[in-house]
Amino acid sequence: MATESPNPNELHGRGSFVHHISWKAPLDDSFVLHLGGLISYDNEVCVGSWVLRDHNAMLKAASSLPMPFGPNSDMMKVMLSALLNALTFATDHNLGVDYLEIHASYEPLTCLLSGHVTVALGSENLQLYNECVDFLRSDEIFDERGTI
Fold first, then answer.
1. Cα separation of 32 and 113, whole Å?
2. pLDDT at residue 140 in the model
3. pLDDT at 136
4. How much is the mean pLDDT over the chain?
5. CA 20 → CA 7, 55, 98, distances in Å?
6. CB 45 within 8 A of CB 66
7. pLDDT by residue (tens digit) across 6-27?
């Protein structure tokens, strides 16, 4: 007799706060880059972070970088700074990435990178974005057949 899986929204009586999340392996010889960021206006803290894993979920590198907090602090700047830091690390350490999947916890960055939505950027963020795009288009990160 087959059993039905419980509705994840009904687990523990917590409604939509409980979701089933699983890791999906990328293609062979590829990497997954997870980006995160935090701005705490109460504590005046900005932090960007990233984790890079291979197709077997083996940790390749990770970093958390505190950033200057100020009146111009915004999540797009934090996330683009984390992305640029990760791409610089991958280049400097010659990781030989064939394919890179980028996952970001900040939807406007995901939309910006996917090209599905136009996102207005200030001059600092536009400069960071252009530096990231230059890295992603270069052959320095990827092997000869590399894609994103």
1. 15
2. 59
3. 83
4. 77
5. 10, 21, 29
6. yes
7. 444 444 444 444 444 555 666 7
Contact between 50 and 35 under an 8 Å Cβ cutoff? The reply is yes
pTM of this structure:
0.75
* 3-state SS string for the chain: CCCCCCCCCCHHHCHHHCCCCCCCCCCCCEEEEEEEEEEECCCCEEEEEEEEEECCCCEEEEEEEEECCCCCCCHHHHHHHHHHHHHHHHHHCCCCEEEEEEEECCHHHHHHHHCCCCCCCCHHHHHHHHHHHHHHHCCCCEEEEEEC
Structure tokens at 26: 């990328």
Whether residue 114 contacts residue 148, with contact meaning beta carbons closer than 8 Å, is answered with no
CA distance 34 to 19: 19
